[in-house]
Design goal:
Layout: H1 4-9, E1 11-14, H2 15-22, H3 26-35, E2 40-42, E3 51-55, H4 75-171
Antiparallel strand pairs: 1-3, 2-3
Length: 200
């Protein structure tokens, strides 16, 4: 890390400016800055945001060595080619990471919403059960009351029937006396005697 004096002496460059210093592409310059862990910041009041890279004051641009033979590309050429290929891949990987984070946040939000809906459904089910239990208790109390009234009515009807039977028995008339059949034996006939005459 550079101290404050070194940072003031160093240059803050954009990726395009750094690419000119390093004789490479802006993506290659970004890869080099990340690999060497150079300080980075955003330009103040820049729209859109512009990234600035702190180029150390003691940085020396590497000198390309001439190729010893024409049989193959030099190491610097290979490095630049790798940077050209890796640069877009790194950018795509970074975008993929951002997309993954956004999807994870959306998934967390959806899971939270599902949990809230599940809790709401459970609370509604509990409310319905409690309401059904209360209504059942009311119905059972009404049924018990009606059963008591029915038993009382039956008992009252039974008592009334017994009372009516007793009253009817008391109001029943006495049986008529049996008639005596006439006797077939003839009654004795009184024979009248003539009055006696007195002799004078």
């Amino acid at each position: 890390m550079l101290d404050q004096s070194q940072q003031l002496a160093a240059d803050w460059l954009t990726y395009e400016q750094l690419a000119e210093r390093l004789d490479t592409t802006p993506r290659g310059a970004a890869q080099i800055a990340r690999r060497r862990q150079w300080a980075r910041r955003f330009r103040d009041n820049a729209v859109p945001k512009v990234t600035l890279v702190l180029l150390p004051p003691d940085f020396v641009k590497p000198v390309r060595k001439a190729a010893k033979s024409s049989s193959g590309p030099s190491s610097d050429t290979l490095t630049e080619a790798v940077q050209v290929v890796v640069g877009p891949l790194a950018a795509a990987l970074e975008r993929q990471e951002q997309t993954t984070k956004a999807l994870q946040a959306a998934l967390d939000t959806a899971q939270s919403a599902e949990a809230a809906v599940a809790q709401l459904e459970v609370a509604k089910a509990m409310y319905d059960l409690e309401r059904a239990a209360g209504e059942r208790a009311v119905f059972e109390a009404q049924i018990n009351h009606l059963q008591k009234l029915l038993r009382a009515a039956r008992q009252e009807g039974s008592d009334r029937g017994m009372w009516q039977a007793t009253a009817a028995a008391h109001r029943r008339p006495a049986a008529p006396a049996q008639r005596v059949a006439p006797s077939k034996t003839p009654l004795p006939v009184a024979v009248s005697r003539p009055a006696s005459r007195t002799l004078g």
